[in-house]
Amino acid sequence: MTATLNPPITTESTPVQSSAFNEAEFDNYLMSTYGRFPIALTRGEKCRVWDAEGREYLDFVAGIATCALGHAHPALVETVTRQIQTLHHVSNLYYIPMQGELAKWLVERSCADKVFFCNSGSEANEGAIKLARKYAHIKLNIDEPVILTAHASFHGRTLATITATGQPKYQKNFSPLMPGFHYVPYNDFEAVTEAIASLNTNKRRVAAILLEPLQGEGGVRPGDVDYFVRLRQLCDRKGILLILDEVQVGMGRTGKLWGYENLGIEPDIFTSAKALGGGIPIGALMCKQFCDVFEPGNHASTFGGNPFACAAALTVCQTLENEQILQNVRERGEQLRQGLRAIAAKYPDKIAEVRGWGLINGLELAADMELTSADVVKGAMAEGLLLVPAGPKVVRFVPPLIVSGSEVDMALAAVDRALS
Ligand SMILES: *Cc1c(COP(=O)(O)O)cnc(C)c1O
């Protein structure tokens, strides 16, 4: 073995800092951007996490649909350890072999021909917006391209992506927003044709439609197959780009690698982030050959696609296949929905609906009850289960994709106790 200057790597986690952690002090230094739950998580393994006081939780949040392989997965630990000892960051001034390998994996398993790497979902969507606008200008000769997005959508927190996000609560006090966006109700085909007819003038035209295959933040609302098939035909007929935001549902979350595979169509452009790196920040913008209109200098990202992030993402990709994780997603998803439906039948006054694909599922609370998703999340936390709201009335279940059958049963029991 060659000698190394690095200390030996162990997979043991850092010691718990129970006495050192102080919420009030934390809040002194951090901007108040998050409404945090009053626990501090300090360690994780598979689908379990532990807080600073040593309490154990079943993690059905997974960093919001991000830790696809759960916590401390041996393959990911091994890869990032090796990569940081070898080369973790250079620059896109040079070829990065790992980036090429990851792009090849993604292209071979999707409808995309080309990939651009960045660091987050927002940044991937920003790239998609820029790509669609450039395509509209140079290929469609549109002076003022408009992008249609949906009510209750979520596309990120940058200025362009809060504008794309069809929810006023994310836009409030941040005006002036970006021009060139228009909102339509989700899963409503007539609304799209009406919007196109009312918006198009000599200079202004609808150039792209940006949608989530299933609306995540907006309440776990799956897209209708019929709606997306008709949209695809409309886009083909009118030369409009169909862009799908796969940031939350891509990378196996729905039981298929990409959300669009549930809809019987292919997008022209799509984005990925969250689960792509299994918790190591990376985002991707992908497109078909015909709309690959970027040229050197048009778009860039300092960190985007560095060796560290790409090695992590490639490991996530390969592990999804090697461990047949998509099969697990379909089976555990079915088990979870059946269990949630049984709970819904037990509390018909509290629960309105259970819906989702694979391991992204929502429990919608009855509209006429005072009960909010935050109440249920807090109740479940007290029972040792972490969940996340998707709006005020929907509780979201997005566990690691490696979750086991017994863990799903434990989560269901905790939800039942929380509701009773
Ligand atoms: C989380 C999310 C984003 C934003 O991703 P960030 O990495 O937080 O910038 C965009 N679109 C969808 C559908 C998301 O779920």
Briefly characterize the structure.
The chain has 420 residues and is an alpha/beta fold.
Structure characterization notes:
The chain contains 13 helices and 17 strands. By secondary structure, it is α/β, with parallel strands linked by helices. The chain folds into 2 domains: 18-66 and 325-419, Aspartate Aminotransferase, domain 1; 77-322, Type I PLP-dependent aspartate aminotransferase-like (Major domain) (Aspartate Aminotransferase, domain 2, 3-Layer(aba) Sandwich), CATH 3.40.640. The strands form 4 sheets. Strands 4-12-11-10-7-5-6 form a 7-stranded mixed sheet, sandwiched between helices. The chain is globular, with a radius of gyration of 22 Å. The N and C termini lie far apart (59 Å). The structure holds pyridoxal-5'-phosphate (PLP). Pyridoxal-5'-phosphate binds next to helix 5.
The helix/strand order is HEEEHHHEHEHHEHEEEHEEEHHEEHEEEH
Which structural class matches the secondary elements?
A: alpha/beta
CATH A-level architecture of the largest domain: 3-Layer(aba) Sandwich
First-last Cα distance: 59 Å
The total of beta strands comes to: 17
**Could you say how many structural domains there are in total?**
2
* Largest beta-sheet details: 7 strands, mixed
Average of the residue pLDDT scores: 96
- How would you write the strand order of the largest sheet? 4-12-11-10-7-5-6
